[in-house]
Amino acid sequence: MSEQSYDVIVIGAGSTGENVADIAVRGGLTAVLVENELVGGECSYWACMPSKALLRGTEVLAEARAVDGARQAVTGEQDVAATLGRRDSFTSNWDDAGQVEWVHGAGIDLIRGTGRLSGERTVVVTAVDGSETRLTARHAVAVCTGSTAAIPPVEGLADVQPWSPREATSAKEAPARLLVLGGGYVGCEMATAWQALGSRVTLLQHGDRLLDNAEPAASEAVLRGLRGAGVDVRLGSRVEAARREGDEVVLSCSDGEARGDEVLVAVGRAARTGDIGLETVGLESGAYLEVDDTLRVEGVPWLYGVGDANGRRLLTHMGKYQARQAGAAIVARAKGEEVDTTDWSPFVATADDAATPSVVFTMPQVASVGRTAAEAEKAGVAHRVVQIPLKVAGSSLFADDYEGTAIAVVDTDREVLIGATFVGPAVAELLQAATIAVVGEVPIRRLWHAVPAYPTVNEIWLRLLEAYRG
Ligand SMILES: Cc1cc2nc3c(=O)[nH]c(=O)nc-3n(C[C@H](O)[C@H](O)[C@H](O)COP(=O)(O)OP(=O)(O)OC[C@H]3O[C@@H](n4cnc5c(N)ncnc54)[C@H](O)[C@@H]3O)c2cc1C
Ligand SMILES: NC(=O)c1ccc[n+]([C@@H]2O[C@H](COP(=O)([O-])OP(=O)(O)OC[C@H]3O[C@@H](n4cnc5c(N)ncnc54)[C@H](O)[C@@H]3O)[C@@H](O)[C@H]2O)c1
Known about the structure:
Enolase-like, domain 1, binds flavin-adenine dinucleotide, nucleotide-binding, 5-stranded antiparallel beta sheet, binds nicotinamide-adenine-dinucleotide
């Protein structure tokens, strides 16, 4: 077995792992990435990029059709083959050569193979040909192995060869009938995409609303959007068994049968930590890693768990944020420098809890940051909620009959914004202003001076402040 030493070993070269290694090298340390699939991970090949590429054409067409004058120019339908081709180009045809080039250019070493912890600061990498390399870390090992699709314990489900989000984002054609199990981010986005690309989609959600952690107004708007597009959304539907009859998938549900050509299972994620040797350092395998705010694993001072692997926020941008914070902490600790662990320091991921932004790319979109009203209530924060229609000069110019909602959650003791949700066409681009207001704890009385340009959809900020003032 060959042996090598690095300052930092990163297991998993997804977007999170790449960033941990990059920050370590920028800080003057040596780093190696261990990867057993494609460098770039889920986001680049089977998640964010292909899913958004599948949705973008549909979105653009809807925007054009919502403006009189432009609508008349849209005389054809979406070219599905071209959309799938554009999706393929965004995944570089599932070839990671470009990312490998970036890794080398950044001064990071890469070892292909499966990495497993083997005691303190040691990782054994097994390559596809069975050869092994023992790596020793002088300072830190970062586990950035991500997550995988969770499969619910439904009788027969595994045997019908369901689609995971990987198949849903990489399929070469639209199935005639697609069943979608789960009404969260993936279920709602993929139902939107494939319905528009030609499938007849049935979405089965066991709860009584879609996007169960979103503001209720967002869940309702997405439900209306999906049903308006022709998706058969069945709320409160519990899938009890699955079987194939010939080419057909049949689901037995609490509200009757559902039949389709494929079934996508999108009921959440599970940690990809089952086979990485956690037991060799006294940790439970298969579980999300429990970490402190510097992303260091509780009780193991040289081990970090970053990105999806810790289950804190399953989003690419939050994994990369955690990577920057953890990377800074690793570099500082390696140099014997003090690591400030107070909120908002350069070494902690305070935004995970206080200000995580996300966008659900449905039609309408849902863009949110910070706490929802329900979360503020649960946390016992004194607050007020302002909810108003997103009707301003800018939105009516953006689209005829623009419909949307804006919700602000204000901490009434501190008079600062602690959460915001925007629902409507193209609201994704409104989000960063809200994120800055939440992170900056900008006093409401100062926000009055952040005058939105006229006529833009951002005028909603003024309306929210006016509604708050009463
Ligand atoms: C359909 C879908 C759409 C999504 N869309 C968005 C979106 O629009 N925006 C957003 O912010 N988030 C989105 N997400 C979430 C996002 O994909 C994840 O949060 C993100 O990919 C996590 O990055 P990561 O680097 O932590 O993990 P991953 O991307 O999963 O990377 C982990 C890497 O580790 C490797 N690995 C695992 N175990 C080992 C091992 N033992 N040895 C060597 N290598 C190993 C894997 O091969 C992989 O490359 C989406 C998720 C899905 C499923
Ligand atoms: N645009 C984005 O940023 C984006 C897009 C996709 C995924 N993601 C990330 O990936 C994560 C995983 O997405 P996801 O959609 O798989 O999980 P999710 O947690 O968002 O949603 C899962 C949904 O499945 C439902 N469900 C659970 N068990 C069920 C069952 N047995 N039958 C029917 N419904 C069931 C839940 O009620 C929930 O609504 C998200 O939480 C998000 O962090 C982000």
